[in-house]
Each structure stands twice: as structure tokens, then as C-alpha cells.
Amino acid sequence: MKSFQRKKSIVDSLFLLLLFGAFLLSALFIVLFGARIYQKTADTTNRNFGLRTSVSYITEKIHQMDSLDGVSVLPVDGTEVLRLTTVAETGTYYTYLYYYDGYLKELTASESMTFRKENGTDILELQDLTIKQISPSLLYFEVTTKDNEETAFFVSHTRGKEAN
User: Fold this and answer.
1) 81 exposed, middle or buried (CB, 10 Å; 0-12, 13-18, 19+)?
2) Residue 76 and residue 92: Cα distance in Å, rounded?
3) Beta strand pairing status for 121-135 and 150-156?
4) Does 64 have pLDDT greater than 90?
5) Whole-prediction pTM
6) Residue 16, C-beta contacts closer than 8 angstroms, at least 6 positions apart
């Protein structure tokens, strides 16, 4: 008995080679497509980071205050500066939040020290920050990130004895 065995031809080899090439090409397109989606997601996340971080940072600093009169906005050299006042056993301390030289900055100093904008610690790179005090318990902020993303928000501060 003879077993039936077909001879391999060049067409069979080319077909397998073409099939393997098609598989490699489709795998390459899937990887490139996935990389593009990942890059867009990463870019969006980075753009939103500046906005969300600045809003959260400013909001949490204000909400940490124990008294309504501890939050004020002062004009200093043409810049609006948010001043948060803390009274402790050792004296009165001010925390300043402001925009200077491309950054949201923070400076904490005792009452006896002179405020100088260049002494603050860089918190977040920004393009601009506007601060306005609408009422003793309501503040308005406009933030523009380094990527030119903009947002505006209000922060209400009603903690402490004065809010009751």
C-alpha cells in the first residue's frame, strides 16, 4: 500500500511566507496604533495634571485654615498674593501663595519677617495665576498652566467660629 504524499511546491512555500508576513504586518500596526493611543492619553494626563494639582493645592491650603479672618488677598508689587494667617503660641505666621517668575510659589514666614516674592518655594510651573477676594469667605482664582490650559474656580472658606 502506498501512502499518498503530495510534493511541496514553491507556491506552498510562498503562501506560508505571505501568511507570516501578513501576521507580522498586522502585529506592527497594532503596536503602532496602541503606542499612538498611549501617547495621546499620556499627553492629556500631563496637561490635566497642572490644572488639577494647582486647583487642589490652593483649595486644600485654604480649607486647612481654622478661622475665617485668616484668609486674605493682598496686592504686593502689582501681584495679588493669598495670605493665610496662623496664630500659634510662639507668634503669628503667614503662608503666602502667589504667582512669580513662572511658578505658583509658597512662602511661610513669621510676622516679623519681610515678605519677598523671590524667596518662595516653587510649587508648580504655571503661565499665570489671578486671585480675587469676592467676599471675606469667597475667593476667585484663574489658573493658566505652562501648556496654556485654563481654568477658573471659586473657593469658599467658612471654617472657624466666625462661620457659625
Assistant:
1) buried
2) 20
3) unpaired
4) no
5) 0.72
6) none
Q: Look at residue 59 and tell me whether its pLDDT is greater than 60.
A: yes
Sign of CA dihedral 37, 42, 47, 52: positive
CA nearest to 109, candidates 94, 121, 91, 89: 94
3-state secondary structure 91-105: EEEEEEEEEECCEEE
SS3 content of the chain, % helix, strand, coil (to 5): 40, 40, 25
Q: Is the pLDDT of residue 1 over 60?
A: no
Q: Return the closest-CA partner of residue 83 out of 96, 93, 66, 65.
A: 96
Cell numbers given for 142: 484663574
Residue type, 2: K
